[in-house]
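DM from R.C. (forwarded with permission)

"hey, sorry to bug you on a friday — could you get me a structure for this? deadline for the figure draft is monday and I only need the backbone to look sensible"
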Amino acid sequence: MPPPARPADVPDPAWPLADGGDVRDALLAAYADPERGYHDTTHLAEVLARVDELAAAGVPFEHLPVRLAAWFHDAVYDGERDAEERSAAWAEDALPGLVDDAVVTEVARLVRLTETHRPEDGDANGCALSDADLGILAAPAERYASYVTAVRAEYDHLDDEIFAAGRRVVLDDLVAKPRLFHTTYALERWEDAARANVAAELSSGVR
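My reply, with the result:
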């Protein structure tokens, strides 16, 4: 299956450092793996665009670690449960010498947080990254449908029944959160649309 076309309003992923072009290129190559469905360079670009949207709206967070964490958060994606941990380890290995140790530590922490998308209320960086990552749930119907199709493609080795059961677990876990989004901006603009999209997917039987 060819990768979905990137929405016209989503720019190419912008690397946030002056140096580290080799790291950037390795990450881009990982996201461009043809075995990926949803978690590809379009996803990376969309997450970064949402980080920029939150920043432009005045949402408070530390821009450098959050943008770097966006780059690394799905650096490893193969359907295994420890992908976030391996992505965080990649950041811990690749970033020393490019940024200070505190930024490396924070990037790795944020990447690990994307396993649950449950930041503490006072975790400004975690709230921003989690909201940017889950923002796809609030996408217009056509984009949401292509997202669902791309996720299914990543698990085409599973039969429909097994995939549907796993997908329901993921969606049920998300909607069980008191709120999907943690920044005021995202909560006000994305929450209702996201819950409507997820409810519609669940009611369709999650094929």
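R.C.: lifesaver. The two ends are 17 Å apart (CA to CA).
me: no worries. The chain has a mean pLDDT of 93.
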